[in-house]
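Issue 218. Parser rejects a valid record. Input:
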Amino acid sequence: MVVRGLWSSERLVWLWLSVCCAACVSQDPLRYRLAGSGENWADADGGEVVDELRQRYPDFFAVVLDPATTRDPDLRPIRRDLEHAPVDRRNYDALNAVAVAYFELNYRAEADRAGSSYLGASFRTAHLAAVPWRAYSEIDDPALRDAILDFFEDAGLGGKLGTAGTRGRLADIVASLEAKEPDRQRRERIAQLAAALRAQPQAGSAPL
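Output the parser choked on:
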């Protein structure tokens, strides 16, 4: 009985350590962090992500999260951080900030396709998508490039509100990255992602 009790205690310790390690991985800021947030970027840990990012980019999010404004967010700090070398947390914070802004503004644009704000919101969304596209060729870091592809995959195939109607335009953006990529496996991923984006039926924005 004593031996069995000790073994059970050891198993409990290992289980506790495993849970802690898994939690550390899930909270790792050096990754694309919105892939598991479902149809709304604020679900799962998306709310925690934006709370952290607002401290780094207060002016950017003051514009992005204001549904009444028609101002363009200043992308210069985001672009500067995403293209920073050597790669560190600021690159990933910038990528995740782009993702939050993209999903928020893209949804507003798609929800107002027949309205007067559609064109302006669509341009702002396109400018946001161009930031990680440019960074992909500026920063030759495998992990960051994978994270950028994770974002584009989520933006087209992750089921976020409003993205079904815009995945077609993302296909060409993603496909163009293949010429920038020397790694064979990553080129294959790019080609497969672009093909998947083109194969999905286009749709209008999802309702709230």
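Fixed in the parser; the record now loads. Residues 178 and 184 are 10 Å apart (CA to CA).
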